[in-house]
Each structure stands twice: as structure tokens, then as C-alpha cells.
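new request in #modeling-help
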Amino acid sequence: MTSARDEVLGRVRAALRDVEGADEPVVAPPGAAAPAGTSLVEHFAERVADYRATVVQCPPDGLAAAVAAALPDGARVVVPVGLPDVVLAGIASPVVDDALSAADLDAIDAVVTCARVGIAETGTIVLDHAPDQGRRVISLVPDRHVCIVYADQVVADVPDAFPLLDPVRPLTWISGPSATSDIELDRVEGVHGPRHLHVIVVDESS
Amino acid sequence: MTGTFVGMPTFPSAARTALADTQLRHNLAHATGVIRGKRAAVVGEVENWEDLRLAGAAVKDRALRSLDSRLVELEESLTARGAVVHWARDADEANRIVVEVARAHAVDEVVKVKSMVTQEIGLNEALEAEGIAAWETDLAELIVQLGGDLPSHILVPAIHRNRAEIREIFRRRMGEVGRPAPDDLTDEPAVLAGAAREHLREKFLRAKLAVSGANFAVADSGTLVVVESEGNGRMCLTLPDVLVSIVGIEKVVPTWAELDPLIRLLPRSSTGERMNPYTSTWTGITPGDGPQEVHVVLLDNGRTRALADETGRQALRCIRCSACLNVCPVYERTGGHAYGSVYPGPIGAILNPLLKGTGDPQTDSLPYASSLCGACFEACPVRIDIPEVLVHLRAKVVDGHRDDRVPKPEALAFRGAAWAFADPGRLGRAERLSSVAGRVLRRRGKASLGRLPGPGGAWTDARDLPVPPAESFRDWWKRTDGGERE
Ligand code: SF4
């Protein structure tokens, strides 16, 4: 008996008898630039805010204060193992993630992470789950995600992000809080992911 | 192939029932109108949209042209990253693989990410037959599942339900399968979404096994991609110990970099957003993060049949954005159920016959579920020429019925058209005739022509012919010298 693998591949080859392969990768057209008179960071902040996320900008020495302001009083906050000290300084009693269970995380109010890339045109933040961002689950289960993006991590559009991302790492692309339009196409923020997305853009010039 | 909703009538009779349902027509017209508007706005923002469409089509074509070696490459990349790769010739084989994985872990329930392909193969029913409950976690799919209903749209499967109906479904059914809806449940969308959050969180937290599809599968890296909005996808892809992803063999993208144009095209075409809330990508197993046992099932189930069809194979470029549904005048009036398949609308009208082959009356009626207006091609982000494939498939259907003693009405309608198209003089006369009728009807304030007599009658059984313009295209061309003297 032929295996399913051999049979499927055989059918593919038979179907393609008349077809020649295409060897050269497709080069896609360039992405958009920030509108004239707007900086990349401003453009990013506006586009993220369009999704009804909260966006604040701060200078590097204002980061701890901005993080503290993003967290409700008494919130239980989980952080990844590699969160920089300057960020930790803004969190009263952080719970460091050491393989917490999903049930543990369900009892936590907020998570603070860094990010890998910000995409201005689409208002997207990409996490590659490096140590300053942590496991995928910690930025998923708590209801509030405070995410720090540095100005020099912001690129203009999607094609500019691809070369910076390593596909071997798990990636999470986030564009605003969790949302659904399944009921009569009314957009509702928050179904299963964090219902509050709070983005802090760290920028020398702000 | 279990992709047809069992016992569905052919498109014309199902469509007539759907047309009589005013609630359905109202919900559909509202929904497709809203999405069309959103899509137009965000597509308009992209200066080089046409170039992007060309690139998207080229990427999918490139993958399909060497699909055999791409699949082998995908398998190697996945295996190198710790995933177990399975191959499935058809629906039964794919379902059996999932059942075996579930048995190996002795689970009696799985959580599911919304996926067309698992509906196509009837996975939920196959699991149920083995005593394994499959929980849909997408809000719309949950509504459909709790309502004991069928999805009617690729993107918003519960598009045919309004908020009052959804409240009733939640109140009646949630308690039977898990956490009940709260007593004070209103029909506010935010409140209904909140009830779904509570109901499903319990299931996510205890789930051991998740089943997903994939929007894309990158051959050179072994990366699978799931595009979603609600976060239920992230829950399924991250929390359970074991993940099984069922991937149609046409989902392959050659390289990581070539994913870029598709990621730019899909959300704008689909939900009319610059980007969907969440996109997850993963490559086999990541130690210490997410499922530590990962299975990928590469599924044929008719795809190689479609691939062998020279004209039809372009349908395998489809990225399931549903833009063609939202612009289709036939879909807008009949809704998704009339197509009798998980793939409704213009893409369903070509994909079902391509995957299943012609010969079944239900499938054979689908290529006629179109006015060939061309709006679907204009909207399609990967430039599938749906009208071209429809005409090609109509010819196939007619050929298939050539030996029937009593010709099918569709065949007669097609012959009527073929007769008119065969002779330019005849076509001109027929057009002028229908434009005279159009002028008369317009004066009487009638919007559509209803049923035509003669061979055309079969055609208008399934659709009301729009009133023809007062001047035929040929007359206009002659009068204006092809638009020069308009
Ligand atoms: S055929 Fe084109 S427009 Fe229709 S769902 Fe597929 S990709 Fe979208």
C-alpha cells in the first residue's frame, strides 16, 4: 500500500505535469512612509490609538513613572524574567514569571512587557517573546497589557518589519486590544485577550 | 468528501427559501454593506494596492507551481523543529489522525480555533462519534455551535443571527455544555461577548488538546500562521499541551519574506482593518513556551483535483478573506446557506466543484449561482478570475450532462446563452430586445424582471434579472465611438 505522503505528492506531480516551477522569490512593492510632516513615532502612536488602545509617550527617564501610572492601584502584576530594571522600578510588587500555570495567571490583573518591533502604518506591535517579553501566555491571560516600545524599534510598514523578525521564534502581532465584530458587526473590545492595551512609547524627543 | 451540508437542496431551491426570509436578507444586506464600506476605506489608503495584489497572486502561484518540492521542504523544516508531520488524502484520514492523537492523550474534549478546513472535513462530527467534544471558541462559531446551526459566511459565520437571537441561544444552551450565561444577560454586544469570555475561559484553562487550521504555512522556515481577532486563537495555540493543526496543501508560502504581501492584503480585504488584532506565528516546538507536542496534518481532500484543472487551479490561491462574498449581489440576497457548503459565495461556487468534481446535482448548480458581474474579481486580493472559472465550470457541467436524455435546465440556459453568443447579429438583436423590455419595465417602476420565458426561464429561476439598461452596450459603443464621443 502506498503511503498517504507518496500518494498526495504523486497526485501533485501529476497535476503539475504541464507547469514549470518558478525559482525567483517574488519581490513585493514597498510599504508606506509616514505622512509628510509627521514623525514615524507620531504616526505609530496615532495608528495604535485608532484601535482604542491607550498610548502615552515619555522620555527615557520618565519610564518608571509612566509604567506606574499605567497600573491600577493594588494590581497584581506579572513580569517576564528579563524585564529591564528601569521598567521594574515602576512596579510595586511584581510577580516574576517562573512557569506560572494558566490558573495562576488567571488570578493576575496585568502584565508589563517590552516588544521587538512597532509598525507605524498598521499600528502593530510585534512580540518575539525574548526574555524582556516572556512566554506567550503571560501577555495573553491577564486583562491588562502594558507594553513598552522604544522609538528606535518603530519601522514604517509591514515589509520593513519582516527582515527584523526571526520566524523560528514564536511571534505575536498585536494591533489594539482583543476585539470582535461577530454580533451584528458592532466592534466590541475584549473577548479573550487583554481588554486593555496600554502602550508606552519611549522617545528621547518627548 | 464531507464538505457538503448533508441533504442540501440545489442552489436555486435553497436560494428561493433564503430569499423569502426577510430577517436573513436584512441582516445580510446590513453586514455586507458595512464590511464593503470599511474595506473600501482601508484599501483606498494603500497607494500601490494593485501592485500588492499582483505580488500576492505571484507568491501563491510560485508556491503552487512547485507544490511538490515546497511540501517536502515544509515537512523538513517542521520536522527539524520538533513537529510531527502527517499526510491525509481525504477527510476521513485527517479526522482519524486527530482522533488518534486525542486517544493517545486520553482526552474527551478539544478546544478549536475557527478554521474552514476542519468544517470542510467534518471534524467536530467525527470527534463526537468517538465521544470527544469539540468546543468552538470563536464567538461566531460558538453562536453557530450552540444554536445547532450552520455557518453562513467565511468571516462572520453567524451573520444571519441578530443580537436578540444570540441572547436567546446563550440563555438556553450555555448551561447545558458548561458555565451558564448570567441571569442578567442583555442583548448588548459587549455583554454577550462578556458572557462568551466567561463561558470559554473555563474551557481554555483546562484544555489539554487544541485543534487549529492555518492561514499560511511557510515552507523555508516551517512557520504556521493564524490570523484572528478575539484572542481565542492565541488561547488555543498557547495554553494546551498538545496542538494539532490541519493545513490544506494549498496554504504553502515559499519563504518567510514572501509572507509580507499576504499579511498586507488579508486584513484590509477581510475585516476592513489595517491589521487584525492578533496574528500568531509558530515554528514547531519552542521549549518552555506553548504546546510541547505539535502535530501538522497536510491535507489533500480534492485540492490536487483542483490543481489539475488548468483554468480552475487559480482558485487555490484563495486566502479566505471573504471579500468576494461581500461584494456579490447573489450572495447578498441568498446568504451562505443556499450554497450548501462551508465555502459559500463566489469562491464557493468555484471551489466546491473544483474540489469535488462535477456530477452531483447540488455541486453542479453552483457555477450558475452568479450573474458574472465581475465584482468578485475586482475585490479579490490574489486576483482570482472567478467569472472565468465559473464559465469554464459551466461548460464542464454541460459536458457532464450531454448524454442525459432530458437536458438539465442549467444546460438549456447555457445553450441559450451559447446560441446568442455564437452569432454577433443574434446577440445584438437579443440585447436590443431586452433593452426595449427594460425601458417599458422601468416606466412601470419595476426594479427587476422576474422570471424570463423560454430557455432563459431556467436562468431566472435562480435569480431575478436586473432590468436591462435602456441602451445596450453595443448601441452605446456605436453611438459614442467606444466612449470617445460620450
Ligand atoms: S476568492 Fe479571493 S476574494 Fe474570495 S475569499 Fe478567496 S481570496 Fe478572498
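bot summary: The pocket of iron/sulfur cluster is lined by residues B 318-324, 347, 379-382, 384 (CB under 6 Å).
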